[in-house]
């Protein structure tokens, strides 16, 4: 099956499908804040369409089939040290009610407890997600290869991502690509500990 990796285009790529993939990458967290898939995906889709935020369309790359009519996977990335939190906060207040705004701010604060600290030379892979119906076909590998290539083209020295402590499969995949654990952020929870491994890949010039 031929596949295309390209920047998301709102006129050609379905933001609802993209929102579903983002939701699937962190189901438990989104359900905790928004109760169910339908509610969570609705909020995520608004963020994707609006842009100028951490899940905005301008930060998203999609993998589609050659006809471009089916999104198989996504990459959301950002450039470390260049996030305008004040601009993002103003946007959230503009498009959501007070209750949802509070939840999104709290979600961002909780994420900050676990996610890697970024410097200006870091390229951060925020979300890597593959449609469950198309897993095992090399799409995740395609996304990672292109993510590393983007970092090199943009002149970044390090690629950073985070993986849940209990996601051993993803951790091993990233290690095969040359990522290594450089930190771990975890906290006690009901079922033991929750948190993430902070992983880095040093870009060769």
Structural summary, described in words:
The protein has a single domain (3-161), classed as Aminopeptidase, CATH 3.40.630. By secondary structure, it is α+β, with helices and mostly antiparallel strands. It has helices at residues 15-25, 27-34, 37-50, 85-95, 98-114, 139-153, 168-176; strands at 3-7, 60-65, 71-79, 122-130, 158-164, 180-189, 192-202. The protein is globular and about 45 Å long. Helix 6 links the parallel strand 4 (122-130) and strand 5. Helix content is 41%, strand content 28%. The model has no long low-confidence stretch (mean pLDDT 91). The chain is built from 7 helices and 7 strands.
CATH fold-level topology: Aminopeptidase
The pLDDT mean sits at 91
> SSE order, as H and E?
EHHHEEHHEHEHEE
Strand content: 25-35%
Number of strands: 7
Summarize the SSE layout with pairings.
Blueprint: E1 3-7, H1 15-25, H2 27-34, H3 37-50, E2 60-65, E3 71-79, H4 85-95, H5 98-114, E4 122-130, H6 139-153, E5 158-164, H7 168-176, E6 180-189, E7 192-202
Parallel strand pairs: 4-5
Antiparallel strand pairs: 1-2, 2-3, 3-4, 5-7, 6-7
Helix pairs in contact: 1-3
Short description:
The chain has helices at residues 15-25, 27-34, 37-50, 85-95, 98-114, 139-153, 168-176, and strands spanning 3-7, 60-65, 71-79, 122-130, 158-164, 180-189, 192-202.
Key traits:
single chain; 205 residues; alpha+beta; Aminopeptidase; 7-stranded mixed beta sheet; 7 helices; globular
